[in-house]
Amino acid sequence: MVTKCVFPVAGYGTRFLPATKAMPKEMLPIVNKPLVQYGVEEAVEAGMRDICFVTGRGKRAIEDHFDVSFELETQIAGSGKEAALEGIRTLMEQASFSYTRQNEMKGLGHAILVSRRLVGDEPFGVVLADDLCLNPGGDGVLAQMARLHAQFRCSIVAVMEVPQEEIGAYGVIAGEAISDDLIRVTDMVEKPDPAEAPSNLAVIGRYLLTPDIFGLIEATEAGKNGEIQLTDALRAQAQQGCVMAYKFKGRRFDCGSVPGFMEATNHCYDTFFKNG
Ligand code: G1P
């Protein structure tokens, strides 16, 4: 059973400036719920109740969000407005939250390595909160991946097909199909030149990793953009052991971009709010 989930949240969110000047990008709301809360809900639904944030300067609002807001809650007690806080209070009861700081911006692989002490020697989930994944009426993406991990006991990455002009924004896999939705990874490239991409299957921000990834990240040199890339460590893991890529069920919104963020907002408003 996978119980821990890492949320790397130290990044700046420059695409949303000035909104993210003093506010973490993970706290941007999709209608009335911060992006990061959707991700934590997905992790908890998958049984991952130990939430480990890899945080940084200027991210205090995330800690405050998953804590009691004493003055606010005292103020609105008995007013009927408490109902709006029920979801987050339930989530806080279901999970525990730990924080560690990434004090240098050296890439996603580095952020994961920073979580090593919190995670220990067990498999763990990773959520990039920018990627909002919804699968109404079915299991969330992490829950789908946890089931696969129980079967295969190896690292799993979530993938989706993307058009060639967008593939250069992602980690891209190559591999051998095992079934309609499962591929055994043989190679992985971070943000390839689209003409050289090994496939049209892009990794999105959901991973289930076995703990040997930490040693592999340690041995990984700086790669694309001078950063320690998780993709490079996963390539090594795929070549030495086993990594599976899973074409998840559900819909993913790229909330790290303004158009994706707007699409998610409109979708969530229409689906969850418009008719009460
Ligand atoms: C990161 C990863 C990339 C992955 C992407 C998914 O890139 O490095 O492999 O495809 O997340 O959203 P970023 O978008 O942080 O540049």
How would you describe this protein?
With 276 residues, the protein is α/β, with parallel strands linked by helices. The chain has one domain: Spore Coat Polysaccharide Biosynthesis Protein SpsA, Chain A. It contains ten helices and 13 strands. The protein has helices at residues 35-45, 60-65, 70-76, 86-94, 108-114, 116-119, 141-152, 213-218, 230-240, 258-273; strands at 4-8, 29-30, 33-34, 50-55, 96-101, 124-127, 131-134, 155-161, 171-179, 182-190, 201-209, 243-247, 251-254. The strands form three sheets. It has a five-stranded mixed barrel with strand order 8-11-9-10-12. A two-stranded antiparallel sheet has the order 2-3. A hairpin with a 2-residue loop joins β9 and β10. The chain is globular and about 60 Å long. The model has no long low-confidence stretch (mean pLDDT 95). Bound molecules: 1-O-phosphono-alpha-D-glucopyranose (G1P).
Task: Note the topology.
Blueprint: E1 4-8, E2 29-30, E3 33-34, H1 35-45, E4 50-55, H2 60-65, H3 70-76, H4 86-94, E5 96-101, H5 108-114, H6 116-119, E6 124-127, E7 131-134, H7 141-152, E8 155-161, E9 171-179, E10 182-190, E11 201-209, H8 213-218, H9 230-240, E12 243-247, E13 251-254, H10 258-273
Parallel strand pairs: 1-4, 1-6, 4-5, 8-12
Antiparallel strand pairs: 2-3, 6-11, 7-13, 8-11, 9-10, 9-11, 10-12
Helix pairs in contact: 5-9
Bound molecules: 1-O-phosphono-alpha-D-glucopyranose (G1P).
Gist?
The protein has helices spanning 35-45, 60-65, 70-76, 86-94, 108-114, 116-119, 141-152, 213-218, 230-240, 258-273, and strands at 4-8, 29-30, 33-34, 50-55, 96-101, 124-127, 131-134, 155-161, 171-179, 182-190, 201-209, 243-247, 251-254. The protein is 32% helix and 26% strand. The structure holds 1-O-phosphono-alpha-D-glucopyranose.
